[in-house]
TrEMBL record:
Keyword annotations from UniProtKB, A to Z: Signal
MF (Gene Ontology): serine-type endopeptidase activity
GO biological processes: proteolysis
Protein name, entry field: Trypsin-like peptidase domain-containing protein
Superkingdom, natural source: Bacteria
The organism's taxonomic lineage, starting at the top: Bacteria, Bacillati, Actinomycetota, Actinomycetes, Micrococcales
Cited Pfam families: Trypsin_2 (PF13365)
Keyword Cell membrane: no
Organism of this sequence: Paraoerskovia marina
């Protein structure tokens, strides 16, 4: 999480948490290669029922998630992301903002070199392109979930071990941080700083949203899949991430 986002979130009693259809944004500008990644814990927390989320079970859920370290000119922030295809990750804009170097690693400790990154102009979303193939990627759901639907969040809270947590969709609300488009999803799935950019999955393992914030009452906020789809289909929705140097 960037320092600027933290200040904004504190003021509002909110905290930013650091196969799809459509056309992906143009290839972003180059970013330095990843080095010196934090080691991962090979034993993530896996709740009951995750084995049924995808045809490959919990292994596929784990392997689609990527830890992100944003080395900034005046500090370091961590976040999460997930694969859209073999060479493209989706995460939050605030996870990659003010970057000097973006570093990626998978749940089994493999470093992934970064080719470039772009962030959405009017939503808290960003894409990262990699130079090597990512092991697994989910499908974007065709529509937003309904209240009461189960949600599974896969990410790296606090930049530490991979965790998989579950909850339900509580409803929708107008984005309190004014960083995305229209309505956002509210869930009771547990998230923490560093969970930003995590995939939120439905019972079939399809992405229904992207975690981007946590409320003062410990509810998680998601950019809904309908917004994700709309931006990925818009060639002008993303711009290269500006370096802090």
């Amino acid at each position: 999480m960037t320092r600027r986002r933290t200040l904004v979130a504190s003021t509002m009693m909110l905290g930013l948490l650091a196969g799809c259809s459509g056309t992906l944004p143009p290839l972003p500008d180059p970013v330095p290669a990843a080095t010196d990644l934090v080691p991962d814990d090979p034993s993530p927390q896996v709740p009951d029922g995750v084995d049924e989320l995808t045809t490959d079970g919990s292994a596929a859920v784990r392997s689609m998630a990527v830890r992100i370290r944003n080395v900034q000119c005046d500090g370091l922030s961590t976040g999460s992301g997930f694969a859209l295809d073999e060479h493209t990750l989706l995460t939050n804009k605030h996870v990659v903002a003010d970057s000097s170097e973006i570093q990626l690693s998978t749940y089994d400790g493999r470093d992934v070199a970064v080719e470039g990154a772009s962030s959405a102009r009017i939503a808290d979303l960003a894409v990262i392109r990699t130079t090597e193939a990512l092991p697994s990627y989910p499908t974007l759901a065709l529509s937003d979930p309904a209240p009461g639907d189960t949600v599974t969040v896969v990410g790296y809270p606090e930049g530490g071990r991979l965790t998989i947590t579950q909850g339900e969709v509580v409803g929708t609300t107008k984005d309190p941080l004014n960083s995305t488009l229209g309505e956002v999803l509210v869930t009771d799935a547990e998230v923490e700083p560093g969970s930003s950019g995590s995939a939120a999955l439905d019972d079939d393992g399809n992405v229904i949203g992207v975690v981007y914030a946590k409320t003062a009452s410990d509810q998680s906020l998601l950019v809904p899949v309908s917004t994700v789809q709309a931006l990925l289909e818009d060639d002008g929705a993303f711009a290269p991430v500006a370096s802090c140097s």
